[in-house]
């Protein structure tokens, strides 16, 4: 007997998804509730578990196909019969490299990283869910190996014809994921609709760094979470938004909607790219509650267990490009939000204090905003309020 695998209900108003990656191949044994396929919606990846224990049978759709909610996408055989797996996808290599392991089960992002760095995926230990490789695993392996030239390896896929390689030339064509298509569409819509403008400032991080150094051990011992920078900036944003409520508002037709709460979208890294889960009522949360929420989002993003409900809403966004080494950027707002605060890397720079040149740990701040709703004076005032609160964290405690 067999059991059908159906596309589950994915959330309110979501009627379809794309097949992101088959996690099990025909002929492989699966346990009940073990993930067998990853679906990609407009906002999040969802893993579909096997309804029974048995053997993976036919896959009725291919990776990249669009499927409707309730559609049958695979069959699980529960009689123990072993289904012959599909032919192994061969991996070709130049004479300077060895034959690589089968790469057909790798996600598009991981395959691209393998091509770019010339790394044999069979020699890398995966840190993703169920030991699967992530893009970060490949990048780290490339660093350890001295980052071999990308043209030493060409991986052939069943769905992409092999392209002859001449010298150091080569390319790979991969269909955009549904998540990436949605991100591209929304960002372009933001540029086409909003009157985007960015204002900059810099902030001396000395006081926050000193506070973290003094209290980090006690904070972690009491709350079970590290004291990070995001708690300070979230509280600073909440304080500044009280003085400049337009940054926490949105345009609805010919009306301006001012939110009485602050739901902060925070950009966190996931295997398929950046996602923006929402910290609800961030203006009423403590430092510990904020840091715990962000830590939970980060762990769930890496495991691929964030839900669409985690992403829904948000009245303001904080994006920290500094964790990737960014010095300065002009972030794009996430509609219908009116503003986004961009954080960047901290670096020692010479500044003038009391007439003397001193070295301080400085960070550039960038506030991108919708000029239809927020005036330049309001944007600058908001950013100055954030700067003042970070440079003198006591303000966060006494609401100044």
Structure explained in plain terms:
- The chain has helices spanning 108-117, 135-144, 178-193, 206-223, 229-243, 287-303, 308-311, 376-391, 394-398, and strands at residues 2-6, 16-22, 29-30, 35-40, 45-49, 54-59, 66-68, 72-77, 91-93, 153-155, 196-204, 249-252, 255-258, 264-266, 268-270, 273-275, 278-279, 316-320, 339-343, 347-353, 356-370.
- With 400 residues, it is an alpha+beta fold.
- It folds into three domains: 2-77, RNA polymerase II/Efflux pump adaptor protein, barrel-sandwich hybrid domain (OB fold (Dihydrolipoamide Acetyltransferase, E2P)); 91-175, E3-binding domain (Dihydrolipoamide Transferase, Irregular); 182-398, Chloramphenicol acetyltransferase-like domain (Chloramphenicol Acetyltransferase, 2-Layer Sandwich), CATH 3.30.559.
- The strands form six sheets. Strands 11, 14, 17, 18, 19, 20 and 21 form a seven-stranded mixed β-sheet that branches. It has a four-stranded antiparallel β-sheet with strand order 1-8-6-3, with no helix packed on it.
Question: What is the fold named in CATH at topology level of the largest domain?
Answer: Chloramphenicol Acetyltransferase
Helix percentage range: 25-40%
What global shape is seen?
A: globular
Number of strands: 21
String of helices and strands: EEEEEEEEEHHEHEHHEEEEEEHHEEEEHH
Q: What fraction of residues sit in β-strands?
A: 25-35%
Total count of helical runs of at least 4 residues? 9
The CATH architecture term of the largest domain is: 2-Layer Sandwich
Any idea what the radius of gyration is? Answer: 24 Å
What does the main sheet amount to?
7 strands, mixed
Q: Uncertain spans, ≥5 residues at pLDDT below 50?
A: 81-104, 148-158
CATH structural class of the largest domain = Alpha Beta
- Rounded to the nearest angstrom, the distance between the terminal CA atoms is 69 Å
Number of domains: 3
The CATH superfamily label of the largest domain reads Chloramphenicol acetyltransferase-like domain
Mean pLDDT: 83
Q: Structural class given helices, strands, pairing? A: alpha+beta
């Amino acid at each position: 007997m067999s059991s059908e695998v159906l596309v589950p209900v994915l959330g309110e108003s979501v009627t379809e998804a794309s097949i992101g990656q088959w996690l099990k191949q025909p002929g492989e044994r699966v346990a009940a509730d073990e993930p067998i396929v990853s679906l990609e919606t407009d906002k999040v990846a969802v893993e579909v578990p096997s309804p029974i224990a048995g053997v993976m049978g036919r896959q009725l759709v291919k990776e990249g196909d669009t499927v409707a909610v309730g559609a049958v996408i695979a069959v699980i055989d529960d009689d123990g019969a072993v289904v012959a797996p599909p032919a192994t996808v061969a991996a070709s290599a130049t004479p300077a490299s060895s034959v690589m392991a089968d790469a057909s089960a790798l996600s598009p992002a991981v395959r691209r990283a393998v091509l770019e760095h010339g790394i044999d995926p069979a020699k890398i230990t995966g840190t993703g869910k169920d030991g699967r490789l992530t893009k970060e695993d490949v990048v780290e392996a490339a660093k350890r190996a001295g980052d071999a030239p990308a043209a030493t390896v060409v991986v052939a896929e069943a769905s992409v014809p092999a392209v002859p390689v001449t010298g150091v030339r080569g390319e790979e064509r991969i269909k955009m994921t549904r998540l990436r298509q949605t991100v591209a569409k929304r960002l372009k819509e933001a540029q086409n609709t909003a009157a985007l403008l960015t204002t900059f400032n810099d902030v001396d991080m000395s006081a926050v760094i000193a506070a973290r150094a003094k209290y980090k051990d006690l904070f972690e011992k009491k709350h079970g979470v590290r004291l990070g920078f995001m708690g300070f900036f979230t509280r600073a944003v909440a304080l500044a938004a009280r003085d400049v409520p337009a940054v926490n508002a949105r345009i609805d037709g010919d009306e301006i909607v001012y939110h009485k709460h602050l739901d902060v979208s925070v950009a966190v890294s996931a295997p398929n790219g950046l996602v923006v889960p929402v910290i609800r009522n961030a203006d009423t949360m403590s430092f510990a509650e904020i840091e715990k929420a962000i830590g939970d989002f980060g762990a769930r993003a890496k495991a691929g267990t964030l839900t669409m409900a985690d992403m829904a809403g948000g009245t303001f966004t904080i994006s920290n490009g500094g964790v990737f080494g960014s010095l300065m950027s002009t972030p794009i707002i996430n509609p219908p939000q009116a503003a986004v605060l961009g954080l960047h890397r901290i670096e020692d720079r010479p500044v003038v204090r009391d007439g003397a040149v001193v070295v301080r740990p400085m960070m550039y701040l960038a506030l991108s905003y919708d000029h239809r709703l927020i005036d330049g004076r309001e944007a600058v005032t908001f950013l100055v309020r954030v700067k003042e609160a970070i440079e003198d964290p006591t303000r966060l405690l006494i609401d100044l």
